[in-house]
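Good morning C.,

I know you're traveling, so I'll keep this short. The sequence:
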Amino acid sequence: MKKNRTYKVKRLLMMLLAGTLSFSATAAASESGLLPATAAQQQPVKGTIVDVNGNPIPGASVMVPGSTTGTVTLVDGTFSLNIAEGTTVEVGCLGYTTVKVNAKNGMKVVLHEDTEYLDEVVVVGFGTQKKVNMTGAVASVDVDKTFGSKPITDVSKGLQGVVPGLNISYTSNDMGTTPTIKIRGTGSINGDNTPLILLDGVEVPDLSFVNPDNIKSISVLKDAASASIYGSRAAWGVVLITSKDGSAVKDKVSITYSNNFSWNQPIGLPKYITDKEGILAQLEEGILAQKNTDGKDIEAFGMYYNKMAPRITEWFDKYSGNLDNPVYTYGEDWEIIGGTPYYYRVSDPNKEMFKTSFSQTHNLSVNGNTGNTNYNIGLGYTKNEGNLKAAKKNDIERYNVNISTNSQIKDWLNIGTKLMYVEKEFEYPNGYETSNGTSNMLYYVMRFPTFFPFGISDGSKLPDGTYASEKAATGEGLYFRHGNGYLANRDVC
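The tokens, ready to paste straight into the viewer:
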């Protein structure tokens, strides 16, 4: 309704402005003696617009077709328009059919309700009814328009911005994040303010469990009247979802298969200092800042910057061309001094942490109608890979199975069954889920300088040059710990 009000106000302003311009032009033409005889006969034509019950209709538009001449009715349904009698005018209003009549002073025009608008069927409670009979605030979603032409795997993302008053927001961009859903804002300080979500009458915890390809209709009950049907759980509104059945086909079997493949790449990533001059300037600034503060040498986890500068310079001059090798070589990329590891290899965090991911969706539906029985079988598979490069597992997989049958045994007996099976698996590296905390990987990526390690050591080499473990000897190495100030960890990835 907000959109209609906005449209109506804009139209009102346009009509008033057009009427002013038309009046001014007429007056100017009359003074100059150029006014045609027919135009000179124009005079205010007054009238009233009412509905079939005789009630005045405010805000109805009265326009001369093909021109900008027009006006709108006042609160009492009356209007006044400076045109010649007999001129054809078009009268209309939202929710009523538009009519064309010949203008006549004292005219009275009756508008009839638009039955197509009022006959729209909406799912509500335990059945359906027409909008003309609705007394509560209900919004229906055009499923084909919302999901049909879009590669959407999450119903929540598809409904964003579609239903007025339905707010869907995400507090994080992490994979698997459950959105916050509210209808008409926050209604309680202590309550969770989340609406009741029902799929074929069964509550589902999250819209991401629903396969968009298997949805027949969606209705949103916005006001507290829904609590009269569903109880106090529906105090914050209800999202009603109906799955597909086989009623759309007649005496045949329809098989439909669809898929979608996509590649995702992070954008808008921050830029980091990775060049030789920038790194050395960063170290020098840190050294000077610490000296000016307390006269001491600056260090990070035992690594003193004044010792690192010459070795990082050497790394840029001799070993910076070995970045394709993820293994940190002892003596080149890192070394232990006085029991403390020092790191010299400079990496671009964006290249080390992120990759282009692949996502795929497959949907197969079989529906038919034989005699008095219709059925629908919907199968869905979705896999979305994450963008973390080092993670061994970072993806979401979802399996959907929906089976629906309906048989009309007698005029008074209808038997139907609906079965839904959903399996959703989200695998992610340790620390990934705490995206807003200080133990998260991405937190350390932005916190530490780019000479902190991302890869694996060659190493654990002993002073005599021998390897400390079989993994190191085979070249697999060990991930550096991020919990001790270093990003990567074999247990994390």
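Safe travels,
E.
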